[in-house]
Amino acid sequence: MSSNDQKPILYGYFRSGTSWRARTILAWKGIEYENRFVDLAKLKNNEDDYIKVNPSRRVPTYITPDGRALTQSMAILEYIEETHPERPLYPKDPFQRAQVRELCNEVACDIHPIQNNSVQAYVAGKDMTKREEWARHFIARGFEGIEKRLGKEAGKFAYGDEITMADVVLVPQYYNALRFKLDMSAFPTIERVCKNAMAVPEFIQSSPQQQPDCPPEFKQ
C-alpha cells in the first residue's frame, strides 16, 4: 500500500476541545482516518509512546498519510482546509476570511489556553470550585467581545448563514462554557449559533459524547 493509500491518524481525547475541532473538520471534509485515544492524565513521564509522537504532551496530533506530524489544532485545521478545498470553511473574500480567522483566534489564542486544565491545576490545585470559577471568568471575559462581534457578523451560524471555521472553533468552547456552568444568558447570540451548528450532522458525529473513549457517565 502506498503512502497515498494510508489513512491519516488523529490522536485525541473525547473531551478535548482542540481534538473536537480536528474531528469536526475531518468529518466536514469527509476524510476517513484512524482514531487513537490519549488520556493525558495517565501519561507516564517519558515512558509512553505518545510522548515520542508529541513531546508537548498535548492533543490533538495529526499524522498525515505520508507520516508527517502536526501538533497544533489550528495548524491542523489550516492544513486540512488547504489540502482538501472542497466544502470550504472560509469565505472567498480576503477581508471576510480574515474576519473568520479573527473569530477563531479569539477562542484559540485568548480564551482556550487560559481556561485549560493545566492552567486551572496550576492556579487552583485540586480545588474544583476554584478551578471552575477561574474557567468561567476567562470564558465569560472572552465571550463578551465575541458576543458583540457576532451581533454584526452572525447569521444562522457564527459568520453568516454558512458553516465556517469560526463554528468549528467556537462550538467546543461553548461546550466548555456549559461544562463549567457559565450562565449563557448574557451571550444569546453565541448560544443560538452554537446550538444551530451542533445540530449539523458533522458536529454531532464529532461531539465528545459520540467518541468511543467517552465514558458512559458523560454520554448522558
TrEMBL record:
Keywords, sorted A to Z: Isomerase
Cleaved signal peptide residues: none
Sequence intervals crossing the membrane: none
Domain GST N-terminal: start-end pairs: 6-88
Keyword Isomerase in record: yes
GO cellular component terms given for this protein: cytoplasm
Any one of the GO BP annotations: glutathione metabolic process
Keyword Isomerase carried by entry: yes
Residue span(s) of domain GST C-terminal: 93-216
GO molecular function, one term: glutathione transferase activity
Family membership noted in the UniProt record: Belongs to the GST superfamily. Zeta family.
Name of the protein this chain belongs to: Maleylacetoacetate isomerase
Source organism of this protein record: Lichtheimia corymbifera JMRC:FSU:9682
